[in-house]
Design goal:
Number of domains: 2
CATH class of the largest domain: Alpha Beta
Distance between the termini: 32 Å
Helix content: 40-55%
Structural class: alpha/beta
Strand order of the largest sheet: 3-2-1-4-5-7-6
CATH topology of the largest domain: Rossmann fold
Oligomer: single chain
Strand content: 15-25%
Largest sheet: 7 strands, mixed
Radius of gyration: 21 Å
CATH architecture of the largest domain: 3-Layer(aba) Sandwich
Length: 280
Amino acid sequence: MLSLEEILAERFELEDPELVAAFDELPLWSAPFGLLLLDTVRLRPGLRVLDIGPGSGFPLLELAQRLGPEASLVGLDPWRSAAERARLKARFYRIANAELVEGVAERMPFPDGHFDLIVSNNGLNNVADREQALAECVRVSKPGAQLVFTANLPGTMRSFYDAFAEVLRDRGATDRLPALAAHIGGKRPTRAEWEARLRTAGLTLGRVLESSFTWRFASGRALFRHGFIRLGFLDAWKAIPHPADAIGVLGELERRLDRMAEERGEIALEIPFACYDCGR
């Protein structure tokens, strides 16, 4: 652990390639969810913390620094390359109280009753089996532990998906509308669905904090070329139409979004979400 003298003597060179490589590229998609999560967590020294799905290190590394060296944190994620990125950032910023473990939430490699706090920033809604993941959260948490997680609500990007449905109808692909509905519902459970799962798992729901932000784009072309769209959304969108018609459907969708932007001045996608504050 660095002493205060070492911290005060440290100087950062902004052109240092290692600094640039370690600089946090936290997607703005993740930040609004995470800010509400961080405001909801009860901070105190010495906590044992599990972050489910930290990707390249958020909120794991931020929590590790806010809690201080007395705390110990583990990030559990199946994305190996992202974990390596998080380890690089931890080494550069001298964060010694956080580690990354490769694995999935449905089969956690941790003992029973181990953690005081479990967090997940828009991660639990992306696991393969939510019920099993919550059961594992209960197993590895201590009595009295806090579980805080964020998740999209069903109205996410409604205007985009309404336009997607219109394109499918106009192209005579109404048989693909159920696939679109499954995609929307699969990643965005309702509050009632989450609350039922939490009760079944044996968790006590304290507060549900709802919020939203707007993801704004100048055009459909801009939206489809955004790095996070390409990384996190495009493969799922391509799988909705018939394979032979995927390019045609998405091309027409892009053109409709361009027209929408011309008429309205921009594309404004509302992202409603909730933060669930639970007890063990």
